[in-house]
Automatic annotation (TrEMBL):
Keywords attached to this entry: Redox-active center
Protein name per UniProt: Selenoprotein W-related protein
Lineage: Bacteria, Pseudomonadati, Pseudomonadota, Gammaproteobacteria, Alteromonadales
Protein origin, superkingdom: Bacteria
Matching SUPFAM superfamilies: Thioredoxin-like
Cross-referenced Pfam families: Rdx
InterPro entries noted in UniProt: Selenoprotein_Rdx-typ, Thioredoxin-like_sf
Length: 62
């Protein structure tokens, strides 16, 4: 499955949250800031297609 679109919606009072359907995948307060692209790609992949290889992102895990 491929992700066709991502949209950002403004919020107030420093809220930064990323949802897929109704599932929260990133929260600035809970997760401690803004996500690195690498971490965000992993979280989205884990929901959409957990078996998909992200190439160099998956190969350089610590």
């Amino acid at each position: 499955m491929d992700l066709a679109e991502v949209s950002l919606s403004p919020a107030s009072k420093g809220v930064f949250q990323i949802f897929y359907d109704d599932k929260l995948i990133w929260c600035r307060v809970k997760d401690g800031g803004f996500p690195e692209a690498k971490e965000l790609k992993k979280r989205v992949r884990d929901l959409l297609d957990p078996t998909r290889d992200l190439g160099h992102i998956d190969k350089h895990q610590s």
